[in-house]
Amino acid sequence: MKELDTHTFRLAVAQFDQAAETMELDGNLRERLKLPQRSLIVSVPVRMDDGRVEVFTGYRVQHDSSRGPSKGGIRYHPDVNLGEVAALAMWMTWKCALAGLPYGGAKGGVTVAPKQLSRAELQRLTRRYAAEIFPLIGPDQDVPAPDVGTDAQTMAWIMDTYSQQVGYAVPGVVTGKPISIGGSLGREEATGRGVVYVTLEALRHLNLTIENSTVAVQGFGNVGSHTARIMHEQGARVIAVSDVTGGIYNARGLDIPELLNRYKAKGQSLRETKMGDWISNEELLRLDCTVLVPAALSEQITELNAASLRCRILAEGANGPTTLEADRILEDKGVFIIPDILANSGGVIVSYFEWVQDLQRFFWSETDIRNRLQEIITLAFHRTKHFATERRVSMRMAALMSGIDKVAQAHLQRGLYP
Ligand code: GLU
């Protein structure tokens, strides 16, 4: 399908093909799972503050729903297109299956630069987008969550728009909501916390300790900032962080609580904090460190820079940060990769807890959330590690193959309709 043929979709399909080949996946299933189950493209007309009407394009793609409702975030970014959303939806399918969550994968997005819109414009955009995808979403059908460019407020507007249409409050239609309307404790930091939990396991596996580790984080949004904070709390020396404009580097370690205070509470840019030397995103990736966490956009580590990476562990907070060519180079260099669908699964794991709490109208303590998250993601790490050793494949292939296998079993057991 021509519209799907973008570089991110090609990466997701190339990974899938390689895994399917290695595991000798049924040929019919292979054809089916390469493509999304359902894709919706919507026009989103928005009255701008100056009175003009601007029309944005939005998407919701459900890759698979054989194991349960489909699940996945909504992205607001100028580069969003059908291929990217479809790739991200496919990764959600494998991610949920790998973690053992009873979900399929989905993703949504609007092609927009959210920072250029006022809060009122963003609210109107979100509500109209939610109304347009209304036929597809619901607690039993498809459950959106935050992703790049969206947050708890975005989810609150979607929850309200959906609830207004049906006539009563439906908290379980989205996750990552504010606590006051059925959100879960610990959801906001969950992806970052999950990245730290799997990194701790990888360090242990390599006979390293967090206290003697240095960490560099690319991206200082939800995933990057919480990862940096929790790594610091666990005793690691976080030597560099960056956002879209560039990053700061301090070999002695950045004072992360103070940095977060200046960046988030005082609204200073990373550069204005003057807490380290100014470096480019490309320089950050090449830093000598124990753990490198790409937590920004996809395809950051490619054949062009992979050979220059100097980390021991690559913990993929972002979705799809590494190309297949880069994978090969990193593997030859002996970098231990914690693949995205494992490393960043903490977000959707706690989304699952939120959805369960909403459906039961019974809420858990933060300690419960953290313990259950750690249990699920640590088990997924060890299952993947075991699979990789047993089948002599990379951690990425092991994670993909375990996820794909669970989805394949569901398809084969349900059979082909009609
Ligand atoms: N957007 C996050 C991800 O890529 C979370 C998805 C969710 O919680 O549904 O995994």
General description of the model:
The chain folds into 2 domains: 2-180, Rossmann fold (3-Layer(aba) Sandwich); 190-343, Rossmann fold (3-Layer(aba) Sandwich). It has helices at residues 7-23, 27-34, 82-99, 119-133, 152-166, 190-205, 222-233, 256-265, 270-273, 281-285, 324-333, 340-343, 346-360, 366-391, 395-414; strands at residues 38-47, 53-64, 70-77, 104-111, 142-146, 214-218, 237-243, 246-249, 277-279, 288-294, 310-315, 336-338. The mean pLDDT is 98. 52% of the residues are buried. The strands form 2 sheets. The protein has a 7-stranded mixed sheet. The protein is built from 15 helices and 12 strands. Helix 1 crosses helix 15 (395-414) and helix 3 packs across helix 15. With 418 residues, the protein is of the alpha/beta class. It starts with 6 loop residues before the first helix and ends with a helix. Helix content is 47%, strand content 19%. The structure holds glutamic acid (GLU). Glutamic acid binds at residues 71-73, 145, 147, 175, 319, 344, 347-348, 351. Glutamic acid (GLU) binds next to strand 3 and helix 13.
Q: What's the CATH C level of the largest domain? A: Alpha Beta
The strand count comes to: 12
Helix coverage percent of residues? 40-55%
Count of helical stretches:
15
Poorly predicted ranges (pLDDT <50, ≥5 residues)? Answer: none
Strand percentage lies at 15-25%
Which architecture of the largest domain per CATH? 3-Layer(aba) Sandwich
Counting helices, strands and paired strands, the structural category is: alpha/beta
State the end-to-end distance: 24 Å
Shape: globular
Strand arrangement within the widest β-sheet reads 9-8-7-6-10-11-12
Order of helices and strands: HHEEEHEHEHHEHEEHHEHEEHEHHHH
Mean pLDDT: 98
Q: What does the main sheet amount to?
A: 7 strands, mixed
The structural domain count equals: 2
Which fold name fills CATH's third level, the topology of the largest domain?
Rossmann fold
**What's the Cα radius of gyration?**
20 Å
